[in-house]
UniProtKB/TrEMBL annotation:
Species for this entry: Trichococcus collinsii
Ranges of compositional bias, category Basic and acidic residues: 80-96
Main location: membrane
Upper classification of the organism: Bacteria, Bacillati, Bacillota, Bacilli, Lactobacillales
Bias-annotated ranges (Gly residues): 63-73
Residues covered by the Phage shock protein PspC N-terminal domain: 2-59
UniProt cross-references to InterPro entries, sorted A to Z: Phageshock_PspC_N, PspC
Membrane topology note: Single-pass membrane protein
Domain of life: Bacteria
Gene Ontology terms: cellular component: plasma membrane
Stretches that traverse the bilayer: 30-52
Subcellular location: Cell membrane
Name of the protein in question: Phage shock protein C (PspC) family protein
Length: 105
């Protein structure tokens, strides 16, 4: 059973519209265009509804099903361990070059 969660990969502000598009299986651009049209048309209060959903919708992996989500928005400990394993390149000294002659300008 699918659960409505914020999107982890299709985020512009908080992932609400991306999560809605993933839940219904449609393109996120269509959901965003419909949202903007409803904002400018003044239909209900789409901005208040968006803020409410941003607060109430769970992040991916926090839906209570015991699954955790890694990747781009994964835990910071996985980022630290990958940063520590990278090697650091030494900087090469810059060779001294002749001074440029700017007298012709």
């Amino acid at each position: 059973m699918k659960k409505l969660t914020k999107s982890a990969t299709d985020r512009q502000v908080s992932g609400v519209l991306g999560g809605i598009s993933e839940y219904f299986g449609i393109d996120s651009t269509i959901v965003r265009v419909i949202f903007l049209i409803s904002v400018f048309a003044g239909v209900g209060s789409p901005v208040l509804l968006y803020i409410l959903m941003a607060v109430l919708m769970p992040e991916p992996g926090q839906s209570g099903d015991g699954q955790s989500f890694g990747g781009k928005y994964g835990s910071s400990s996985s980022r630290r361990s990958s940063d520590a394993s990278r090697s650091v390149k030494e900087a090469k000294p810059v060779e001294k070059q002749e001074e440029d002659d700017w007298s012709d300008f």
